Amino acid sequence: MGHGHGHGQVNPQSASGRYLGRLFMALGITTSFMLVEFIVALSTSSLALLSDAAHMLTDVVGIGMAITAIVLAKRASRKSSRTFGLYRAEVFAALANAVMLFGVAGYVIYEAVGRLDDPPTVPGMPVVLVALGGLVANIAAFALLRQGAKESLNVRGAYLEVFADLISSVGVLISGAITLAFGWAYADMIIGVAIGLFVLPRSFVLARRALRILFQHAPERVDVGAVNGALAALPGVVDVHDLHIWTLTSGMEVASAHLATETEAEVADVLGAAQRLLAEDYHIEHATLQVEPINATERCAELSW
């Protein structure tokens, strides 16, 4: 007879939920300055400033989606039919952020190439002043989100966008200074392309991490073979099968497994040892383990997946 048992509980307050207030503050900062950048970019024909404004738009949308995902996750935890809540909404938000960053980078590069033959005259002083303001705004948002980015993929998505925009603000500042000092029209386009290329690898890394979670791959830090071997080496355990380890959302890793035991083995002892092993050695606090005598595993062997 099988014995199912869970250890730990999924915390209805995900890692990013603790940073909701900071997300709102960052949203206010980026939204306000994004509008300023768009207005000045359109009035000066600055592609570098326009690209920075577009990046800031992805900051606004990305932070907004992060906030929405957290609110949805909290509400979903109250629905009995949603046994895992809507924590994956955070991962979808992070993936959407990465897709937006790819789109913005492609648009900036396309526009820059189109201007090569006839670069517009861009006034340096307005670009420099707005770039300085954008740099300050991004530093403030960056500081607000930095700690949360270490714990939550969702917050990390917004954090990476702000970080990329901070770097692009430095680039815009440089292009404005060059234009102001030397009147070189191509500086604005070169910086625009550099900003677009800069964000692409970061977008790829973010998308890859989100897809790993959505495809329910084991966390990169966990060696599934080693976990299997460690469980199989526990006293009384003769076989481990149906071992699954996956990430629900940032900071929430779960596992399930069947442990086949010697007939005389004490179920409670085996279960407790397995729970301690997963929690202490692999930091997996939520595990559902079925302990079953070795002569009762025929049903598991019949399954084809």
Automatic annotation (TrEMBL):
<keyword id="KW-1133">Transmembrane helix</keyword>
<keyword id="KW-0406">Ion transport</keyword>
<dbReference type="InterPro" id="IPR002524">
    <property type="entry name" value="Cation_efflux"/>
</dbReference>
<dbReference type="GO" id="GO:0005886">
    <property type="term" value="C:plasma membrane"/>
</dbReference>
<dbReference type="InterPro" id="IPR050681">
    <property type="entry name" value="CDF/SLC30A"/>
</dbReference>
<dbReference type="InterPro" id="IPR027469">
    <property type="entry name" value="Cation_efflux_TMD_sf"/>
</dbReference>
<keyword id="KW-0812">Transmembrane</keyword>
<protein>
    <submittedName>
        <fullName>Cobalt-zinc-cadmium efflux system protein</fullName>
    </submittedName>
</protein>
<dbReference type="Pfam" id="PF01545">
    <property type="entry name" value="Cation_efflux"/>
</dbReference>
<dbReference type="InterPro" id="IPR027470">
    <property type="entry name" value="Cation_efflux_CTD"/>
</dbReference>
<keyword id="KW-0813">Transport</keyword>
<feature type="domain" description="Cation efflux protein cytoplasmic">
    <location>
        <begin position="220"/>
        <end position="293"/>
    </location>
</feature>
<feature type="transmembrane region" description="Helical">
    <location>
        <begin position="85"/>
        <end position="110"/>
    </location>
</feature>
<feature type="transmembrane region" description="Helical">
    <location>
        <begin position="122"/>
        <end position="145"/>
    </location>
</feature>
<feature type="transmembrane region" description="Helical">
    <location>
        <begin position="54"/>
        <end position="73"/>
    </location>
</feature>
<dbReference type="GO" id="GO:0005385">
    <property type="term" value="F:zinc ion transmembrane transporter activity"/>
</dbReference>
<feature type="transmembrane region" description="Helical">
    <location>
        <begin position="157"/>
        <end position="178"/>
    </location>
</feature>
<dbReference type="InterPro" id="IPR036837">
    <property type="entry name" value="Cation_efflux_CTD_sf"/>
</dbReference>
<dbReference type="Pfam" id="PF16916">
    <property type="entry name" value="ZT_dimer"/>
</dbReference>
<feature type="domain" description="Cation efflux protein transmembrane">
    <location>
        <begin position="23"/>
        <end position="214"/>
    </location>
</feature>
<dbReference type="InterPro" id="IPR058533">
    <property type="entry name" value="Cation_efflux_TM"/>
</dbReference>
<comment type="similarity">
    <text>Belongs to the cation diffusion facilitator (CDF) transporter (TC 2.A.4) family. SLC30A subfamily.</text>
</comment>
<feature type="transmembrane region" description="Helical">
    <location>
        <begin position="23"/>
        <end position="42"/>
    </location>
</feature>
<feature type="transmembrane region" description="Helical">
    <location>
        <begin position="184"/>
        <end position="205"/>
    </location>
</feature>
<keyword id="KW-0472">Membrane</keyword>
